[in-house]
Design goal:
Elements: H1 2-15, H2 21-26, H3 34-38, H4 42-56, H5 63-78, E1 83-89, E2 94-99, E3 104-107
Antiparallel strand pairs: 1-2, 2-3
Length: 125
């Protein structure tokens, strides 16, 4: 009986998901490469630049570091022409960006080592 109870408790603990959401959110495996997505249009290029800025200021896993990371990326996103609103999500490592055309998209961290300003098709205000 004890063995069954211990095995059940161990199985329940193993089934819990990890709280490190950055690794799953920022992973680019299976997605269209950022450079290719940026060539789809100007708003897509702007979204890639915002994602790169979100990955650029990664300061750690503490709540304060995430808040700083998201705040800096949000400030950068507001300097891009055509961006109407930016809604931060510090727990989910993302920004929800609404463009002047009405397109709303989630900007996730894109850690490919390219500066946001180097994204073709993006110019700050």
């Amino acid at each position: 009986m004890r063995y069954l109870l211990a095995a059940s408790a161990l199985g329940a603990i193993a089934a819990c998901r990890p709280y490190n959401l950055q690794s799953t959110t920022a992973g680019q495996d299976g997605l269209i490469p950022a450079e290719q997505f940026a060539r789809y249009g100007t708003e897509q290029a702007k979204l890639v630049a915002i994602g790169r800025s979100l990955a650029q200021w990664d300061g750690g896993t503490t709540a304060e570091a995430r808040a700083t990371q998201v705040t800096k990326a949000m400030e950068y996103a507001k300097t891009i022409p055509g961006v109407v609103t930016v809604v931060p999500d510090t727990l989910g490592y993302r920004l929800t960006v609404t463009f002047a055309s009405g397109w709303r998209a989630a900007a996730l961290p894109i850690d490919d080592g390219i500066a946001p300003e180097a994204t073709p098709g993006v110019a700050a205000k």
